[in-house]
Each structure stands twice: as C-alpha cells, then as structure tokens.
Design goal:
With 241 residues, the chain is of the alpha/beta class. The chain folds into two domains: 143 residues, Type I PLP-dependent aspartate aminotransferase-like (Major domain) (Aspartate Aminotransferase, domain 2), CATH 3.40.640.10; 91 residues, Aspartate Aminotransferase, domain 1 (Alpha-Beta Complex), CATH 3.90.1150. Helix content is 35%, strand content 15%. The strands form two sheets. The chain has a five-stranded mixed sheet with strand order 1-2-3-4-5, with no helix packed on it. A hairpin with an 8-residue loop joins strand 7 and strand 8. The two termini are 33 Å apart.
Length: 241
C-alpha cells in the first residue's frame, strides 16, 4: 500500500501479489511512506529480490520504503537475509523483522527494524512509547537467537505442510495462491457461502480466518499446523464443499 491521504490502497495483481508497477505509479509528491509486506499477509504470496530491488530504486529518496518481512524465514524465493544488502544503497529503506512468527513469541510482541540510515530510528525514539519492549520479551528473543536449528526445523515443517496442503486443496477443486509463508490463502468455490464454511469448520473444532474480515469476502486464510491438524482441516472442508 501507499500511505497517503487519498486512496491509499493499491490493488494486488491477478496472482494475489503486490503490483509493483501500480505501487510505483501511485507515489506522488505527497507520499511519505510505501509499505510492502513480503511475504504478504493475508495472501501468502511473495516477490523476489530481483523484482523488489528495481521498485525500491524507483521510489524517491524522500519517501520511506518499509518492507515487512515478518514471514521472511518461510520464503523460498531468496535467502532470508538477502534483502539486507539493499540497505547500503537505500537510506530510505526499512526492513521489519519479528520474533512472533518462526520463533513463536507472538504473545511477547517483540521485533526489530533494520534501517538504511540512522535518521528514522532517531526520529522514532522521540515518539515511541516508553517500556515498549519488556524484559521478558527481550530475554526470550535473545534466547531464541541461540537456537537457529529450531528455526530450520520449523521452516522445513512449514514448507512440507504447504506443499502437501496445496496438493490436497487442488484435489478439492480449490486453487490456493502461491504461498511463501506458513499459511495459505484461497477463494472458496463460487457456490459456497463464506460464513457457512467458517461456521461449519468451527463447529468441528477447526478455526480459520474469514476473507471478509481481511478485505476479500469469499476467501479463507488458513495457518498450517501438524500433519494431523492439516488432515483434519482438509477432511472437514471436504465435507462442507
């Protein structure tokens, strides 16, 4: 999206990915912030660094480009730290990372920003809330960094789950977006009512995010779980479709 007073949202392309050409065209002299979520939430899709780099080059240097990489570890299109190389040449670039996803610390609300210059963090320090990251969160995040093997295990499990889920959804006649995250996104068949499907899943103990609450009625966002949980989801969804 482009953060601006009028018409701030830029539609995704047909593949549920950020339309970088449209984003670039939407930037005006009034624009101060451009946000790209990569991989994107809720659509699970991602852009390659080869696509993203020219877009960042196209944005004026007085406009901040914020790339939210909360799900970056799950992205198989590029190494998770490849985007860091862009910071040296783009003072207006900010990369957001979090411990809420692959590290499993969502309840502690801890993350960090990698910035192309010192100006942005210095400005944020003047307006941020005090005690924004408590001692427990800092201790947990520091400990999480000491266990890279656990990150690899979780990423491998998520990638295996999304490959299996993709095939099983396609077998039901559902076409999910090309996921590079730890969840999938797909449109329900035309004749299916979103509310009925979400309710039917919940009645069988399966909770998903409804697309109507995420800007696209008739779609579902489904996080991957264990093989047993994923199989249960497919079983219940199949009975509802």
């Amino acid at each position: 999206m482009v953060a601006e007073a009028a018409d701030p949202a830029v539609a995704l392309d047909a593949a549920e990915r950020h339309d970088l050409e449209a984003l670039s065209a939407a930037v005006t002299p009034q624009t101060r912030l451009v946000i790209v979520c990569n991989p994107n939430n809720p659509t699970s899709t991602a852009l390659t660094l080869a696509e993203l780099a020219p877009f960042i080059d196209s944005v004026p240097r007085d406009v901040c480009v914020l790339v939210d990489e909360a799900y970056g570890e799950f992205n198989s299109l590029d190494p998770p730290d490849a985007s860091i190389e862009l910071l040296a040449d783009h003072a207006n670039l900010v990369l957001l990372r979090t411990f809420s996803k692959v590290h499993g610390l969502c309840g502690l609300r801890v993350g960090f920003a990698l910035c192309g210059s010192t100006e942005l963090p210095q400005a944020l320090k003047l307006i941020r809330q005090p005690f924004f990251c408590n001692v427990a969160a800092q201790a947990a995040a520091t400990e999480a960094l000491l266990h890279p093997g656990e990150v690899v295990r979780r990423v491998d499990a998520a990638r295996a789950a999304r490959a299996e889920m993709r095939e099983r959804l396609r077998a039901l006649g559902v076409a999910p977006a090309d996921s590079e995250a730890n969840f999938c996104w797909f449109d329900l068949p035309v004749l299916q009512d979103e509310a009925d499907v979400v309710r039917g899943l919940a009645e069988q103990g399966v909770l998903v995010r409804a697309g109507s609450a995420l800007g696209k009625p008739g779609a579902l966002r489904v996080s991957f779980g264990t093989r047993e949980e994923n199989a249960r989801f497919i079983e219940v969804l199949s009975s509802l479709l």
